[in-house]
Amino acid sequence: MYFFDKNSAFDRNPLFTDSHHTVLYHDWYCHADALHSLLRPRSLAAVICHNTMGSALSYLACLQNRIVPLLIDSKMDAKLMERLLGIYEPEYIFKPASAVHPLYTMEDYGVYRHSRQKHELYPELALLLTTSGSTGSPKLVRQSYANIQSNAAAIASYLSLTSQQRPVSSLPMHYTFGLSVINSHIFCGAAEYLTEDTVFDEAFWKFCRQYRITSLAGVPFTYECLKRIGFTGMDLPDLTLLLQAGGKLSKRLQQEYGTFAAAAGKKFIIMYGQTEATARMSYLPADACLKKIGSIGIAIPGGTFHIMENEHTEITAPDTIGELCYDGTNVTLGYASGPSDLRLGDMRHGRLWTGDMAYQDADGFYYITGRKKRFVKITGSRVNLDEIEQLFKNAFAGSDFACAGEDDDIWLFTTMPAAAGPELEDFFFKKTKLHPSCLTLRAVAAIPKNSSGKTQYKKLQNFIQQGGSA
Questions:
Q1: What CATH homologous superfamily does 374-465 map to?
Q2: Cys bridge to 163: 31, 147, 189, 329, which one at CB 3.0-4.6 A?
Q3: Which InterPro entries does the entry mention (predicted)?
Q4: Tens digits of residue pLDDT in 279-307
Q5: What is the structure's pLDDT at 436?
Q6: Interatomic CA distance for residues 467 and 446, integer angstroms
Q7: Under a CB-based contact definition with an 8 Å cutoff, are residues 273 and 279 in contact?
């Protein structure tokens, strides 16, 4: 599968650049052709992901040869990774080259035989992504070739991407958002600039200046970090596109970055998506950023949203909350919980029940109010934990919060000092009219996040269920 004509002028374009050298699209095709004669067609392969040349080439070479890659976070706990590999038994594994002789090498990566297991794979199955990059869960999202192609095309369209774009790998490639940056830019023949440095490293910004990076993608945590390091005061004239997805950005940060972008001649675009929709489902056009604070925007080209009261009844009145449902060719095939599920076909048929509660305003813009399952009952009334969390994030700049809980007991984890407890309790009561006795405060050094910057609510919930003991 090629994202575009293999014989086009793109074959002479840079594909990946790191701090050492550049590989071309032509190099990708040569590696793919070489692997075609070495690896069994329609086999399963694991790719241990880093933001490096060999890792990215491994993923692309698998797609070209209709070998199904399972992308795994290189930072996953070794025992959990071993368990995941033991469950699915991929025939091949792509990983950083070691002293052991590989079947083939691509830049810093080697291809190794992992097992003799031959899997029955659905003909259109293209890619497997983990639902949690840190727990080693065997539950995977099954993506098709059409899913990847259509979502890459839609993203390239609404972002007006060209072959002249120069995005930096600010997110891990095993993560659906980070991978979508690669896919959408390759779709239009652009190059991806690879670094394993983070936004906290001076080397990252030196890299951005050296290669005149034009776009940066981040999750809410990324933009919190950028604020701490004084990003808006940096001299980065070529960086004109700022992208955000991977969770709800606070209204405060949306206002701040939207204002900064408008004054600096840049575009700040907020997006919404899920791995189950390949990547993106909506975007907020840059010119609406400051007009529609808190909105996820509108559906991507080729997709449509519906606000549903139940499985059969659609809500058409504006400003009325229901479950957000999405239709589009980027809706993935379904899940796999084990190797036998890899033969399954399309279980969703283009429709995804997102599990998010949302509403549409009178202008057609959508707003997420919280997760369907992130509710607890306080004295008999349903309370949305996401809304409580967002209230604190919006009000207390510079501090992080996470909300978990059980019926009649909301736990608020915060990086504010324990001495701030009375202030937080008073704020909670004023905003919610709920008695502070139903709020348990816990000061922590940091809110637990995964490698994609998302809050790990399961760890917080486990903490509560263990009676608050670490």
A1: ANL, C-terminal domain (3.30.300.30)
A2: 189
A3: AMP-binding_CS, AMP-dep_synth/lig_dom, ANL_N_sf, ATP-dep_AMP-bd_enzyme
A4: 999 999 999 999 999 999 999 999 999 99
A5: 86
A6: 20
A7: yes
